């Protein structure tokens, strides 16, 4: 089959690789019909190179149809499924409590990490990912989400990651009717988080330096702001001088305006892999401009919810401010499956209230993935969300 493989920092290529095979009775194989490039894939492309191996198949937002089903998979050939990025058993102590990203069966204990993830580096198990023509789905008796056949892939595809990630971020922010919410970053997760806030009745402010992303969010009732030094003060003025009830950081470790963190990322990625891994495990620094701005902006007694990925172990945090402002921090990889019952009616609603049909800016064949990665990272050609079509 053809699959997108990691070859080095800022280098991916589509290669012919062996077809996946069933390895356990509860495995399934799907023919991938759509698979998206995620903002967190860019961390593999740029920052997490020390944890990658040449030839790794990446990607963790796939859907398609079952072509082989293990006898214990609870699936049948022909089933149309979305595959969440997390690999979880569904029955351990953690999974029973809805913490599927902490699954005790698939935890990657070598790196003291949570549940294994599709296509996401040694840190999360080096499991072959979904930017490929076919995908082996481990723990297929729990992980896949069966969907209907009437609606297009775009309606369902984002249940694999970014839509439940955004939903969890807003739920963790604990906002609803009449509350105020700010969102830093209008990439795909930030777009959905802002729309979900509006859907739940909150007044939503969003901060984003890229004009096309601001324009997309504004179409969905979001009040948008460019990223400048006065933006926090402007939003405070709109919220009674206090700041919003909650702030979502949908940017993560590669935020703009963090020169020291950017230098640290570049330096670590140039080290030999073993040394780079050790440096990131013990002394890694993130680019924290979005997080620190979120802490500054949120009102006293408010909540900062992190959906953007962070990976540093030595990040400086403003503990005096956090303590003095009585700020609650909530964060973590998304526990996809527990949110699906709430999200499925919304994605199948004929009115498309979360705008799943208004997110994808580029749909390209798998062979164009290397160019799409570069375009997505550099934010050229109005790129906000790319979907790859492996069968085209």
TrEMBL record:
The answer to whether UniProt assigns keyword Metal-binding to this entry is: yes
Q: Which residues form the Alcohol dehydrogenase-like C-terminal domain?
A: 188-254
Record has Oxidoreductase as a keyword: yes
Cofactor list? Zn(2+)
Under the heading SUPFAM superfamilies, the entry gives: GroES-like, NAD(P)-binding Rossmann-fold domains
Q: Which domain of life is it from?
A: Bacteria
Q: Where is the Alcohol dehydrogenase-like N-terminal domain?
A: 24-142
Give the UniProt keywords, A-Z.
Metal-binding, Oxidoreductase, Zinc
Query: Which Pfam families is this protein grouped with?
Result: ADH_N, ADH_zinc_N
Identify the InterPro entries for this entry: ADH-like_C, ADH-like_N, ADH_Zn_CS, GroES-like_sf, NAD(P)-bd_dom_sf
Report the family membership: Belongs to the zinc-containing alcohol dehydrogenase family.
What protein name applies here? Zinc-dependent alcohol dehydrogenase
Species of the source:
Brevibacterium daeguense
């Amino acid at each position: 089959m053809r699959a997108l493989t990691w070859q080095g920092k800022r280098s991916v290529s589509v290669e012919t690789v062996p077809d996946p095979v069933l390895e356990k009775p509860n495995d399934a194989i799907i023919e991938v019909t759509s698979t998206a490039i995620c903002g967190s894939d860019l961390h593999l492309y740029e920052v997490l190179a020390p944890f990658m191996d040449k030839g790794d198949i990446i990607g963790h937002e796939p859907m398609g149809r079952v072509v082989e089903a293990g006898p214990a998979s609870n699936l049948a050939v022909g089933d149309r499924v979305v595959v969440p990025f997390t690999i979880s058993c569904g029955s351990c102590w953690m999974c029973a409590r809805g913490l599927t990203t902490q699954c005790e069966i698939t935890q990657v204990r070598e790196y003291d990490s949570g549940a294994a993830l599709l296509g996401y580096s040694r840190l999360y198990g080096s499991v072959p990912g979904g930017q490929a023509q076919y995908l082996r789905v481990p723990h297929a008796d729990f992980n896949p989400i069966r969907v209907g056949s009437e609606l297009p892939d775009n309606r369902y595809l984002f249940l694999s990651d970014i839509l439940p990630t955004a939903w969890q971020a807003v739920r963790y922010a604990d906002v609803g009717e009449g509350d105020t919410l700010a969102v830093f970053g209008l990439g795909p997760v930030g777009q959905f988080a802002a729309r979900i806030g509006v859907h739940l009745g909150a007044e939503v402010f969003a901060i984003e330096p890229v004009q096309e992303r601001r324009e997309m969010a504004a179409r969905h009732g979001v009040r948008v702001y460019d990223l400048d030094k006065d933006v926090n003060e402007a939003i405070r003025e709109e919220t009674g001088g206090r700041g919003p009830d909650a702030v979502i950081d949908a940017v993560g470790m590669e935020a703009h305006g963090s020169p020291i963190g950017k230098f640290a990322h570049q330096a670590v990625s140039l080290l030999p892999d073993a040394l780079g891994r050790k440096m990131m495990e013990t002394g890694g620094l993130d680019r924290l401009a979005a997080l620190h701005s979120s802490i500054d902006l949120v009102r006293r007694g408010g909540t900062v919810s992190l959906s953007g990925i962070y990976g540093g172990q030595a990040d400086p945090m403003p503990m005096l401010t956090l303590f003095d402002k009585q700020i609650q921090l909530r964060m973590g990889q998304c526990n996809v499956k527990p949110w699906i019952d709430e999200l499925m009616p919304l994605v199948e609603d004929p009115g498309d209230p979360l705008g799943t049909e208004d997110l994808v800016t580029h749909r390209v064949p798998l062979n164009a993935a290397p160019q799409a990665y570069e375009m997505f990272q550099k934010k050229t050609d109005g790129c906000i969300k790319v979907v790859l079509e492996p069968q085209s």
